[in-house]
Specification:
4-stranded parallel sheet; 368 residues; 15 helices; 6-stranded parallel sheet; Rossmann fold; 12 strands; single chain; alpha/beta; 43% helix
Length: 368
């Protein structure tokens, strides 16, 4: 809305609003989208696509900080808001009305080393503060719902499940430039691909170990392992393991790629590898499924919840099990086609229209 390069949360907000505005129930209410006036008016052409009952309101504030805590609640009181929706961040301390906040994941509870002490306290306070204020919560998975209950003893009736949507169109299999992209980066014809920040949470070390076992046991000399994504927490040890590997020439870190290159390499992958230790949702799984690439992912959490029977599910801590799954999908064409076929029934279920309908249902329930 206000940034050309959007964060994941910003894409969530844009996709959700675009689908909320089209729901019949939305025509019966007034919607206010608040933003700091210092950001400018944003994409006015995009805002014009919204009906007259949607209002984009820039709120002026003279300080760089405390816009959410001081400027926003004054405007909420002025506009007589019935329900405040916070898609991320925190509910204003001074706001006294009904509220619902999206919690995308609770990764900070599992990977404390990846956060500063200040960030850990803030994340925890944001959830506890919302609970104390009597807010409800939107979550994108049963996994996050269960985490809220586990860590905060939150009553299940205050948690509303609305799976994220997924736009398959940008990931339509386009292999027209695949050969040139492979040549540019020195990529083999067959490769295991993983996408996301290269960090401990993604289980990248075990991917390298499993790849080594796969190469030793299967004789898959023509296969490579590709990492696409920026370095994250623990990258140095991951890169060191790759550099010390007997197969280091076949382990490539491509960093951040342009969308065109990413989409082409995703469509051309032999297997998509995503045995993550923790995720809030799992978009890469759906991206791979949408271009007919078989998936290996974790057998618990949101990964198993999203992939179901459309992927090979493995224990992410078991290197031998992961290597065996890699071997099976590398050489068993019947299994590959079975998973590809089953995945075609899964990814179309995750639409932003469905997400908007579930979100609107939560709004109406909370206001009733």
């Amino acid at each position: 809305m206000w940034h050309e390069t959007k964060t994941g949360v910003e894409w969530y907000v844009v996709s959700l609003l675009e689908n909320l505005k089209n729901l019949p129930a939305s025509h019966e209410h007034q919607f206010f989208v608040y933003y700091p006036a210092r950001l400018g008016q944003g994409d006015l052409e995009w805002q014009k696509t919204f009906p007259a009952n949607w209002h984009f309101v820039g709120i002026s504030w003279w300080l760089k900080y405390f816009w959410t805590q001081l400027a926003l609640p004054r405007q909420l009181k002025k506009d007589l808001i019935d329900l405040l929706f916070v898609p991320a961040h925190v509910i204003p301390f001074l706001y006294k009305g009904k509220a619902v906040m999206t919690v995308h994941d609770l990764a900070f509870k599992y990977f404390t080393n990846a956060y500063s002490a200040k960030e850990l306290k803030y994340q925890d306070w944001a959830v506890k503060s919302a609970i104390k204020k009597g807010a409800d919560f939107l979550v994108p998975s049963e996994t996050t719902k269960n985490d809220l209950i586990k860590f905060y003893q939150l009553a299940p009736e205050r948690i509303h499940l609305a799976y994220h949507g997924f736009k398959a169109q940008p990931f339509v299999a386009d292999l027209s430039q695949w050969v040139e992209i492979r040549k540019k980066h020195g990529i083999a014809e067959k490769y295991f691909l993983t996408v996301g920040r290269v960090e401990n949470k993604k289980n990248n070390l075990n991917m390298i170990r499993a790849f080594e076992v796969f190469k030793k046991q299967s004789g898959g000399e023509n296969y490579q392992l590709l990492f696409i994504g920026k370095p994250g927490f623990g990258f140095e040890k991951i890169k060191e393991a790759a550099d010390k590997s007997l197969y280091k020439a076949d382990i490539k870190f491509l960093g951040y790629l342009l969308t065109m290159e990413l989409n082409s390499l995703m469509a051309g992958a032999w297997v998509f590898l995503f045995p993550s230790l923790y995720e809030g949702f799992g978009f890469p799984i759906l991206e791979a499924m949408s271009v007919g690439v078989p998936v290996i992912t974790s057998n618990y959490g949101v990964m198993a919840e999203i992939a179901r029977d459309g992927a090979l599910l493995v224990d992410p801590s078991d290197v031998l099990e992961m290597a065996n799954a890699m071997k099976n999908l590398a050489f068993d064409e019947a299994l590959r086609q079975k998973l590809i076929s089953q995945s075609k029934l899964i990814y179309p279920q995750y639409t932003w229209q469905n997400s908007a309908e579930k979100t609107m249902a939560a709004f109406l329930k909370i206001m009733s």
